Amino acid sequence: MVALMRTSADGVRAFTLIELLAVLAIIALLATLGSVGWQRSQRDARSAACTQNLRALGGAMSRYVADHEGIYPELAMARATRSDAALTIDTALASYVGEQRVFACPDDRKHIAEVSGTSYLWNWKLNGQRLVSLSVSFVATSPIDEPGHTMMMGDKEGFHEHLQNKLNVLYADGHVSQELTFLSDTPPMN
Question: For 115, how many CA atoms within 13 A lie in the half-sphere containing its CB?
């Protein structure tokens, strides 16, 4: 670097304009890369917080079921506003959670939880079922009777854009995954 520095008539060394521009370009590139990495880490943190919320709701549901002789509650899948009289997960589990914020996904930018009480949907097929004899059927010929394959609740919408149309889902055995695909287009009916 010293070889490229110019010496003025009074003996003071200084950087050339090209050297200064090169340093500024490197700093700008590093700032851009750092910003992209920061945004990605924030996005991943919000998604992880959402899965933690679902785990907390799963724990709350386990306590609810234990208090009610092993039977799942009779809940509506969702409600449009908090003023609706429908019993939903946020009203049924309110006394079983430590903080009410677990009902809101951190990526819920449409403020669905503020309006309706929760960012998550309840699988109404579980209504009134006993935990020990759980069986859900969406198609008459193929019932799902394994808790590890039975969705209990999940995101109301595809909040997590980086998941490419997948939802965070809590299953009846308590595990959370991002495997369920959110369909935005309805296939044609035959």
Answer: 10
For 105, counting Cβ atoms within 10 Å of its Cβ (0-12 exposed, 13-18 middle, 19+ buried), the class is buried
Residues 71, 128: contact at Cβ < 8 Å?
yes
In tens, the pLDDT along 124-166 reads 989 999 988 877 765 555 666 677 778 899 888 877 777 677 7
φ/ψ of residue 34, rounded to 5: -65, -40
Tell me if 120 is assigned to some domain: yes
Q: One-letter amino acid identity for 123?
A: N
Query: Domain range holding 141?
Result: 43-177
Number of domains in the chain: 1
107, part of any domain: yes
